[in-house]
Amino acid sequence: DGYLRNDFHIGHVLSMKGRFEDALKILESTQTKQIEIFDKSHPEVLQTTNVIGRCLAEKRLFDKAHDTLLQTLEDGLQELDKGHPIILSIRINLAHCMFGMKKIEEAMDHLTEVEEISLQRFGDYHSIYREAVEMKEQHEQKRKQKEEGVDVSPVTERMQSAKLE
């Protein structure tokens, strides 16, 4: 069990450094060994599978990531409460994946719920709360930039000035 936890941490660190391919190799191997020992809904298995899902999303394999994270969420909710940090983290990664799939409303719904639950449970200093808020803000910024980008185009400006004349 100690070796598996160590392997998980190595895989997690690799994923944080953007080495998703290396991370996936280690994490998928770790997950296979964990499932031999624990149930799929065991917190250690959930954490590993959550990071696997995030790596898949970062590699732009959104459908596979979405399926992985959705199943992990279902497995996790059999054992853990919806406010458990692992469940909240899975939902953040699911939202990240949904943004990639252009499922914006669903992603924002997940983030809003994670934000509310984590604020009540842990306060505004907690990393899960901050991550949910930052992800929502980043998306809002991108959306505004797109809108402003369209409005500021020379063609649009010419059309608006033509309307004024």
Automatic annotation (TrEMBL):
Superkingdom assignment: Eukaryota
Region of interest (Disordered), residue spans: 135-165
Positions with biased composition (Basic and acidic residues): 135-149
Protein's UniProt name: Kinesin light chain
Signal peptide: none
